[in-house]
Amino acid sequence: MTEPGRGDGGSSAPVTASGPGPLRYRRILLKLSGEALLGERQYGVDPAFCAFIARQVADVIAMGVQVGIVVGGGNIFRGMAAAARGMDRATGDYIGMLATVMNGLALQDAIERAGIPVRVMSAIAMNEVAEPYIRRRAVRHLEKGRVVVFVAGTGNPYFTTDTAAALRAVEIDAEVLLKATKVDGVYDADPMTVPTATRYERLGYLDVLRDQLKVLDAAAVSLCQENGLPIVVFDLNKPENITRVARGEPVGTLIAGETGGATG
To answer: Does residue 78 carry a pLDDT above 60?
Structure first.
């Protein structure tokens, strides 16, 4: 039986949230980079920052939103960087996939400590620590109010975790892909180095591909475009941003349609 405020993810019609304001999205896929889990550290996982993420996830779950998470592994190992130093690319990518499993287990612990049931599902079989990824089982977990953390990417080398996030989002019928970053959207230049950089409020998929904006890789953007899946790029460091997106408030940069709108 489907819980109140939940559905199959196929429709984005507003429903009533437990908090203030209508609920725009009922099933979301949150993409976290491995670097996001660093927090204040130079390497590994910061438990305090994982707890910060877990509190945001708990808040959005309380609204009646179903949440899937795809996490990267760049805080531990980056396959492409290793390949650039001479390692076989496929080997490096597999090591990176294992790094995402470690991050997924850290997130699982933090989210459980926040009082939310969670399951880790891996694209590479490791039954002692994670369930195998099975699409129908993942959807059932979501319908039961459990957070699902997808790890090990797609299970194949040469694909990024951005592409894995787009793939899982489409597979579970998510209504939006949330790309968490350190800045509040997509800019026409690096805002960390160019103070006059302009933020886009909205972009089309073709805008991102044509201008080679380094927000997601081309394969991920193309997959979202083919399936009409909107992408919201937002600042993870601001509390309540995830709940604001779920309500449909203008947060960060929305990527959808063929062409974008005004810049912010």
So the answer is: yes
